[in-house]
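Hi L.,

You mentioned the student needs an example of a multi-chain input paired with its predicted structure. This one should do, with 910 residues in total across all chains.
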Amino acid sequence: MALVIAIPYLVRLAIVSDPDELLRVNDAAVVARPLSGLGGLFNRSVAARLAVFRTPAGDIWPAFRDRHDPLRAAHQAMLEATLSDIEPLLQRIAPEIAQLGSYVGGGRAHRSAEDRSLGVVVQQAVGRLFFAEYAASEASYDAARTLQTWLSAWPLRACWIRRSGALKASLARIEAASCGNMACAHATAIAMENIVRSIELMRKLARQGDNLAKLEPQDALIRTLRAPPRLAREARDGDFVGLIRLRSRTLIVLALDNARRQRASDLGLPFFAGAWNQCPAHGLVPALLSKVWQAARTRAEGGV
Amino acid sequence: MSRENDGFVFHRGLLQGVLNVVYRAINFLVSWDHLPTLLGAVNLSVFRDRLRAYNLHHTGYGTTSSGWSTGNERWRSADGSFNSLDHPRMGMAGARFGRNFPLPECVPDSMGDLLEPSPRVISQELLARDSFIPATSLNLLAAAWIQFETHNWFSHGIPGPGNEFKIPLKPDDTWPEHERVNGCMQIRRTVPDGTPREPWLGATPTFRNLNSHWWDAGQIYGSNRARQMLIRSKSDGKIAVGEDGMLPPDPDHPGADLTGFNDNWWVGLGLLHNLFAREHNVICDGLKTRYPTWNDEELFQRARLINAALIAKIHTVEWTPGILGHPALDFSMHANWSGIPYRVVRAVLGKNSEAAYGIIGSPTDQHSAPYAMTEEFTAVYRLHPLIPDDMKVRRLDESKVEDCKLVDMQGRFSRAFMDAHGFVDLLYSFGTAHPGAIRLHNYPNFLRRFDKDGQPLLDVAAIDIMRDRERGVPRYNRFREMVGKTRVKTFEEITSIPGAAKKMRRIYKGDVDRVDLMVGLLAEDLPDGFGFSDTAFRIFILMASRRLKSDRFFTDDYRAEIYTDFGLDWIQDNGMKSVLLRHAPQLGPALEGVNNAFAPWNVLRG
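Structure written out for the whole complex:
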């Protein structure tokens, strides 16, 4: 059951974590991706956080395009067609997969330095799925981290990120590295963090007993795949969605990772597979993570 | 294109900022229409500033400029381009309609929801006229006038066949069998915008305005050079008229007069087009006397400027206070045109203050977006209930009264009807007849089964409902919220019309958020003296001022070098009554003692 909080002028919020409810809400006609900021101060604050994800020319990042936006559907179909050609793409990023395999199966020295380089390698791998010549760096990964922090920071920190110019600079850096490809920008700034978290979990999993040798890639994938923790939507008008009564201008938080934990074997859920907003990488990311696990096993078996 | 409306930003002054806060507190306790006149008028200006800041949204131009022509700097181009010299495409014919709400709010429902509830059911159960409800404070010229004006401001074009909406019909529906397709009523879609879409438009549909967006009397002068040349006599700047002084027939549009824009033609439009074509020609005579060396083009274009400004003035200070009879509004509309009548306040606010000296002659300002008519503006101007089904045609010289049907004085019948009854007697008849009140259950029935030339049978009421839905205009409750009013929670909060709330609840299945905009506007309880709803009025507050403030010919270029001293005096000294009496002096007794030409005139006989 959803948690609904309504305090006049402050917040109008519904947190949905049940997998079935979450999918129903995601599909409801009254629920939209763009946030108006109406409903209370908190709603306004969240809307302001997401409103920055536009290019200087006003182009909207794909993950923030509305359901009925014809460009969203077109971009989604085009990108899905590109990312469905999985084997050649994984071949393209074979060096990065090998590095990630080393990380998963590697020792415990220089933990923080390794974690940092993990981010850069994942960003590079994700970026090269879009352009073979994509080059990640510590600076580009820092930019991605700034944008991720911006989305979840407390108000003072968010204010500092904006006022200091870090937000603008980070957006500019990510967009420049992505050569104006907004899907690439989204993947290398925000979506990549889910892969980073999955690989960190793989590393932990690999270190426990002889998991690395015993667990098949598919099993490891089920235990480590992570979804975005939260997605924001808004109910434009009031309506009942299943048993949830959504008042107009309710900010809806889809607790996707929470829902995934309740249905871990469903590898489609983190990607909204089959829904209107299905992630174009719904086939590619599991394949990539399986390859990483496989690479770690190979490395361990080879005694490297 | 930047993400901030092409770079246009609204700058709020200190006084405006203070008033904004003060009036938020006041309106928490009292609505604007219950305040004393002056406080109410200031309240309206505060609303206008908020709307200027948050309710103007650019959708791209969707067109290219036709290029510079000699004279564009000092008179209106035929297609409205170069009104803004920095942004020549702004407001020109073919440019897109803008929006009054953020673009993500202007997204149509998905197909299943788009047809719910059935527009045909709404037409039958909520809109159909049971018995005529008159608007007794107005005459029928007021109804013709607003159509005359909307034909100046916008046209979405005539919908063509293909991919029609299919509206399922109830078993007992009387819609003719031969008009049905698979048992459904068909409604043609709005002409689509085929121009390339900017990626930032998102899911918001765009449509193009075939007319110039400016308040330039384009309904008389046309919105392209070819049409303009067609209506001209090519002598002394005049519009071509026949020997009887009436506009000639349009060979391409049987029954209609040859004029700038003659879609949806009927006798009401014929009267006003003829009246202001005559006014144009009289202005040309005046200019010719004072400037004998001016050629045909110069005379035509200068007379157009003067005539267009006179029409705008009549709309601002006569028609509007006529239909919205509230003292604060009356004060505000006069202030919009000529400023406030307090010398001390004028001195304090300064020469460039539009509040002090009026918008006319003040600096041009687009506020937060490039100028364009908006889809929401077209939506709130769906005023078909003004049209009666029947009217009494009177004669000035005898007491005989003839009962006529509106359907017999429109389309291909228009000119014959005008010939049969005469220009002056029809003006008199319109002046002494009432339009319909803009309420539920008062939609003209002939328009709900309308056989329009060149179109399939139309239920215009159902079409009106579908137009708002397909163009992504928010439904009533969200529309209220977006113009700064609170949402309603129950149907009873919308209306006190007996039985209406119950009927609406049944049709909308208890969901007040689904009430269509037009239904809500027609159902809404009105402020004292108002002829249409307060919700529609919010858009009106914004756009009525914007049509003037954005237009350089009403602001920066409202000066003698452009209009001539003669022209400025003409606009200053004339109004609807003087125009009527100049061209139809026989109306003198009927207009005697009538302060507003859109109020009912004296019935002289019978």
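You could point out the following to them. Chain B is about 40% helix and 5% strand. Chain B touches chain A through 26 residues (CB under 8 Å).

Best wishes,
N.
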